[in-house]
Amino acid sequence: VQLQASGGGLVQAGGSLRLSCAASGRTFSTNRMGWFRQGPGKVREFVSSISGSGGKTIYADSVKGRFTISSDNAKNTVYLQMNSLKPEDTAVYYCAAKEIRDSDFTSWGQGTLVTVSS
């Protein structure tokens, strides 16, 4: 599965951004898509994920109530709507795909930078 993330940019604290992740290739073999992020000097952390059917979503506590993950299966695209952004949300955001045969996310996009200014 190939993943292409987009939508990052510079935004002021309190603002919003929507990230997109377009999947191609063996998309029929995936059963979960997710977003991760890696801030400056930090390890990569989980942000959110969504099941293939879109029926089950999971969020990190740090983004609950502010971020919303969604999917458009017809377009093989997953979105991350980010509202009420904080400077600590500054990071490179990566989308990832988990295939049915795997226990973890194994396909990764190239990342898109989100910078939140105070």
Distance between the termini: 36 Å
Provide the residue-averaged pLDDT. Answer: 95
- Which structural class matches the secondary elements? mainly beta
Q: List low-pLDDT spans.
A: none
The main sheet comes to:
7 strands, mixed
Approximate helicity band: under 10%
Number of strands: 11
Percent of residues in beta strands? over 45%
Bulk shape: globular
> How are helices and strands ordered from N to C?
EEEEEEEEEEE
Rg for CA atoms: 13 Å
Number of helices: 0
Q: What does this protein structure show overall?
A:
The structure is a single chain. The chain is mostly beta strands. It has strands at residues 2-6, 9-12, 17-24, 30-38, 45-51, 57-59, 67-72, 77-82, 91-99, 107-108, 112-117. Strands 2, 4, 5, 6, 9, 10 and 11 form a 7-stranded mixed β-sheet that branches. Strands 1-3-8-7 form a 4-stranded antiparallel β-sheet, with no helix packed on it. A hairpin with a 7-residue loop joins strand 9 (91-99) and strand 10. The relative contact order is 0.32.
What are the key terms here?
mainly beta; 11 strands; 118 residues; seven-stranded mixed sheet
Concise synopsis of the structure shown:
The protein has no helices and eleven strands. It is mostly beta strands and 118 residues long.
Question: Which helices and strands appear, and what pairs or packs with what?
Answer:
Elements lengths: L1 E5 L2 E4 L4 E8 L5 E9 L6 E7 L5 E3 L7 E6 L4 E6 L8 E9 L7 E2 L3 E6 L1
Parallel strand pairs: 2-11
Antiparallel strand pairs: 1-3, 3-8, 4-5, 4-9, 5-6, 7-8, 9-10, 9-11
